[in-house]
Specification:
elongated, 14 strands, 13 helices, Rossmann fold, alpha/beta, 2 domains
């Protein structure tokens, strides 16, 4: 895709070069700075995915600061923590960000189990808003969250159905399934299995597995020998168990065809398993429409626009900052009662603003006007549960890279 190199991008590129650090240490705050929390996952099972998501979040902050900042010119800064895609680590990191950094809104966590742990134990009781760009478990939808948990990515209640329909359209009628024992993979697996069987498919064998084992050969032998499956539906994080399962499946002749989802969508999967071994592998992910004007604007502002969940991360930061801006203009300051402002800046009615319209949106808010943020990843009309409808892509390996097409 051709990237749009806008004048705005050239103006703040030098600022971005400083801001786009991969460290989880927050920038020191100065008097007048406005803090936003961010809970990433630079350790744990998805470090490569998390690194680029964080870069998108940092780029969004740099863009905001280069285009007028917050309020009367205050800088937006990130108070960062690492969830490690682990519920306990996420609780510890969220506790520090909320109690020490005193943030009113947190972007993240990224993984579903970490999100559920952090919001239930820390942020919901504290009245702090969370906007996750990538926590997709269906279990998040029905949390008793006092309207403080939002997602700019769609729920796996939709992705599981999409993957099942895709599998059937590919001609698969019999699949074995294995899934990691965590909220994200278990939830996605459950939806997929139900949708696949309802669509006329058969699950020949089904096993839960624990992450980070040296060998899955025994489990794979059982899966491969039961009911003559045509492929393996694999629900795992690439660095947790997924790459090991793929490699051992191929090496031992258990499976050569795989379908799965975004937990496996990393360049490391190709590098470790081998592009020549993944010709029959298809992975789905929540994505953005590359033909939309808002995505094209985003692609001119961030140099990895098509990486998983980078568009959703940019949108989450913009929405959070716009909510803080609106709260301040309404005389409430940087309070911990921001959920109404999150909805006010994203849901219709209001004048539409996009991912490159910070200065315009700020001016409209200052004038008391309603805005309707249209994101790089979609319009983000939050429903009653803080969820959004989504767009999905199918990813296959071509020339040693993941290549994506939208799923109708």
């Amino acid at each position: 895709m051709k990237k749009i190199k806008s004048k705005t991008w050239r103006r703040f590129r030098s600022t971005l070069a400083v801001a786009a650090l991969t460290s989880i240490v927050a920038a020191p705050a100065s008097a007048g700075d406005i803090k936003m929390g961010v809970l990433n996952a630079l350790t744990g099972p998805i470090p490569d995915l998390a690194k680029v998501i964080l870069e998108s979040e940092q780029a969004a902050v740099a863009f905001i600061n280069a285009n007028g900042g917050m309020g009367s010119g205050d800088a937006l800064v990130l108070a960062s923590g690492d969830s490690g895609c682990d519920a306990k680590a996420a609780v510890d990191a969220a506790t520090k960000i909320v109690n020490v950094e005193q943030v009113s809104i947190i972007i993240g966590p990224l993984c579903s189990g970490a999100t559920i742990g952090a919001v239930q134990a820390v942020t919901i009781p504290a009245g702090v808003v969370n906007i996750s760009p990538s926590a997709t478990s269906p279990a998040i939808t029905d949390l008793d969250d006092n309207d403080n948990v939002f997602r700019t990515c769609p729920s796996d209640a939709y992705q599981g159905v999409t993957l099942a329909k895709l599998a059937r359209s590919m001609g698969y009628s019999k699949l074995a399934t294995t899934y990691a024992n965590d909220d994200y993979n278990a939830g996605l697996h459950d939806v997929f299995v139900q949708a696949f069987t309802e669509a006329g498919g058969t699950i020949t064998a089904d096993q839960m597995h624990e992450a980070n084992k040296a060998s899955y050969r025994s489990e794979l032998a059982t899966l491969a020998s039961s009911g003559d499956p045509e492929a393996l539906a694999l629900f795992a994080y690439y660095s947790g168990s997924g790459i090991t399962i793929m490699r051992q499946s191929i090496e031992n002749g258990f499976f050569g065809k795989f379908i799965g989802a975004d937990g496996m969508l990393a360049q490391e999967t190709i590098d470790q398993v081998g592009a020549n071994n993944l010709g029959d592998t298809v992975l789905t992910t929540g994505t953005a429409d590359p033909n939309s004007s808002h995505f094209q604007t985003f692609s001119g502002l961030f140099d990895k626009p098509s990486d998983p969940y980078t568009a959703q991360a940019w949108d989450a930061v913009m929405i959070g900052a716009l909510a803080i801006e609106r709260a301040g203009r309404k005389g409430q300051g940087n309070t911990r009662d921001l959920s109404a402002h999150v909805r006010a800046v994203t849901n219709a009615p209001g004048e539409e603003v996009g991912p490159g319209d910070w200065a315009k949106a700020k001016k409209l808010i200052a004038a008391g006007k309603d805005i309707n943020y249209q994101g790089a990843a979609g319009d983000h009309e939050f429903d009653a549960n803080g969820d959004v409808a989504g767009i999905y892509g199918a990813n296959v390996v071509e020339n040693g890279k993941w290549v994506q097409t939208l799923i109708d």
